[in-house]
Amino acid sequence: MFVIGRLLISIASVLNIILSVLWWLILIRALISWVSPDPFNPIVQALYRFTEPVLQLIRNIMPFSGGMDFSPLIAFFLIVFLKSFVVGLLYDFGLRLTM
User: Fold this and answer.
1) Fewer Cβ in 10 A, N or C end of the chain?
2) Domain boundaries, position 62
């Protein structure tokens, strides 16, 4: 059981890092959208490529809100929830298995 516990702790750590990077990328995208960036800039294209699948999924689920795009805000809430609940649960369960 020790190996499974360590595996769950490792998965929780990797998931935590991925969610943190996604949080920062969405924040940077939201801030950049205020200054209308050059869409042909490779950095802006990469930023959109990484964040658009998550934001588009939220936009498909959420009804239209009259011109305001609340998908980054909803994504922040979902990321915080996933980090608190899923990552915490995996980490705690992994710790219990290693004891």
Assistant:
1) C
2) 2-98
